[in-house]
Amino acid sequence: MTVTADARAVLRDQAAAVLHGNDAGSWTRAAPHLYPHQWSWDSAFIAIGWAHLDVRRALMELEQLFAAQWSTGMVPHIVFRAGPDKPYFPGPEWWDCAISPAAPPIKTTGICQPPVHALAAQRIWQLTPEALRPEIRARLQALYPRLVAWHHYLATERDPEGSGLVTAYHPWEGTDNSPRWDHALARIEVAEPGPYTRLDTSQVGDPSQRPTDWDYDRYLWLVELLRKYKYDDAKIYREYPFLIKDVFFSAVLVAANAALLDLADVADARDSDRTQLAGWLDRGKSGLARCFDAESGLCLDYDVRTGEQIRLRTFASFAPLFAETTDTGQRVAQLALLDSADFCGNPEFRYRLLPSTSPAEPVFQPHNYWRGPVWPVISWLLWRSLSLLGCVDRADAMRTDSLDQIATAGEFAEYFDPLTGAPLGSAQQSWTAAVALDWSAADRPDEASEA
Ligand code: 2M8
Question: 310 in helix, strand or coil?
Fold first, then answer.
């Protein structure tokens, strides 16, 4: 059932209210209680949402995040900006990033998340009204070298092999308890982090929607190891047990390199930057092509330590689509797989949306975080790619289903049960509201035509 145009207009106002409610002035809480600080890829999506309300505020979101960029170019996964009245675990003391000479003066974590930021910068520019163009252009020109430095970090420190694929150091680098990490986590022999108390399970009413204590022991132990190496990428690469070539992260980098190239004239980019970006983009596409299994249509991560492919059907298997693949064979195979019963075409699903883990996998859990639920931000990335690839009808069906899911649930939830459409995880999640705002723009021809 498609919700009415009036309900859509109400949804847009409610989405704007969520962003205003989570607005801390110059940055936005990822969620009011569970995630009170500034998260990296959340901020990028949030900026896309703000761009529909106030492009200046949207750009400020990114500027604030990049103010915490490390001297290596890394953009940290959390910038700890909330006060002590908003507790979060693990906080800055657990990370102790001041031990790294590359860390900024502000408190952050020592890992990173997928580089959606260039997509946000591109969207901000697309939505900038004529009168604000000189100001926004000047600010984008100032931000652009920082975005290039961020991509440079990912293309070098996180890919010393020059494979075109980004190496993830930690499940918190995007999709926490995805089953993609299970084997690598199980290989860690000792996982004895110092004593700790989780706050997340009490903040989300039902702990079965969150990672287990087994997962948390390993997440926290990995942070202890990163701390031991003082967050030095070369040392981490030599000694650390968890190094995964993440095809989804890599695909986002490909799309982000394309977005930066698209903005190159606006930002008056140097020739050397343009050449580098084009090189990383090509290398990324080739790297993903090597991880593509033509027989199954899946693109697969691999474990750098064991050299093994991670053969699992998850949303990440669609990395070539997320990377806007130009290879017709890959695209045809991936589109067929996308709507098969293993993914969006599952007859038990409430909406034709991509689950984080396929229901055909024995580890599928429809309520549990990245092990089954539908995540609107992932749907947004796929919708964007499908639109750019010219699959307009499929993209629009994804947008409509996504908006219907949120409107029917009556909540800007963090994630949704693919079987029932029930809202799960945190409520008033900023990035869900942000992508709803962007999707809603297509219902408002005046605004959409500026894009
Ligand atoms: C989730 O991750 C945090 C840790 O960073 C958590 O579980 O406490 C993930 O979904 C992550 O991708 C997201 O950025 C963050 C905030 O929304 O929450």
Answer: strand
Q: How confident is the model over 367-408, as pLDDT tens digits?
A: 999 999 999 999 999 999 999 999 999 999 999 999 999 999
Contacts of 107 (CB under 8 A, 6+ apart): 79, 80, 92, 95, 97
Ramachandran angles phi, psi of 53, nearest 5°: -110, -35
CA distances from 234 to 159, 226, 239, 284, 350 (A): 11, 11, 9, 21, 46
Which atom of ligand 1 is nearest the CA belonging to 430?
Answer: 17
Question: Residues 267-313: pLDDT tens digits?
Answer: 999 999 999 999 999 999 999 999 999 999 999 999 999 999 999 99
Which of 34, 176, 370 best tests ligand 1's pocket when mutated (most atoms within 8 Å of CB)? Answer: 176
Answer yes or no: are the C-beta atoms of 171 and 181 closer than 8 Å. Answer: yes
Q: Which of 416, 405, 342, 311 has the alpha carbon at shortest distance from 374?
A: 416
Contact 357, 179 (CB under 8 A): yes
The pick from 33, 45, 172 for probing ligand 1's pocket by mutation, whose C-beta has the most ligand atoms within 8 angstroms, reads: 172
Residue ranges of E strands in 138-179: 167-168
**In whole angstroms, what is the distance from residue 263 CA to residue 209 CA?**
39
The two tokens of residue 145 are 């070298």
CA geometry: angle 316, 319, 323, nearest 5 deg: 145
